[in-house]
Amino acid sequence: MSKHDDDDRPAGTAKKLLDDAHKAGALSATGRAALDVVDLGAQIQAGLGVAVDDVAASEVVLVSMMPDDSQSIAMARNTQAVRDGHNLVLEALRRSRQAGEVFAHCRYLNGQVLYPYVALDAAVAMDAHNYDPRHGTPLYDQTVVLLGTVIAKSAELAQAGVPVRTVTLLITDGGDYGSVRAGPREVRALVADMLAQENHVIAAMGIHDGTTDFCKVFRDMGIPDRWILTPRDSPTEIRKAFQVFSQSAVAVSGGAAFVGGFGN
Predict the structure, then answer these.
(1) Does a structural domain hold residue 65?
(2) Overall average pLDDT of the 86-101 stretch
(3) Among 53, 169, 246, 248, which one has the highest count of C-beta atoms within 10 angstroms of its own C-beta?
């Protein structure tokens, strides 16, 4: 891979890719409407990353993660566990036989892009310099952005004749707090469109906070029960949950069926 391509794409590229996905039947009118926000295109474009011309693989797996960077992560002393979990997933993918076909993207829950879609050797580890959880929890708004990025990147690859599968993980330790333009209905529309294509896995991890019913939160967003993780509020349990996700991501990258789940 020569460079990230998100800065070189013409303005409006993300919008065009989403329009193309709609025309191709991969995105319903309802799903397209959920993404039709004035500033959403720029946010999605920031995650597109690697240029199609730099993709040598005959098929691609997109692994996308959205770690929670809200202040409650720090208050619960789970900062390092989330860093470790993200890094564990990258290492597991790097060790897999399909590592050359995997492109990863990490966008924090409050919108900071740690890295756009890049080959695994260019994916950045989370550490004390780039991850400081101290924000809110705009879960619905940023899930729409992340899923829109997955859809747009998938459309870009498909247009180049590259088959694509995707695995996405949302991570939060609380319910939505701070979304201003999207709710569970908008997320659910996108999830439904993606699952209907049968080449996407959308998973979610709700770190126990003592009050939030994460299964209900994620069900309302359209995420199947079999792809929901609810670890207890401890570093050990959080790392175990990331390990479970990493195993599923490696399995999907190896061509495993999308009808599975975490089995928890």
Answers:
(1) yes
(2) 96
(3) 169
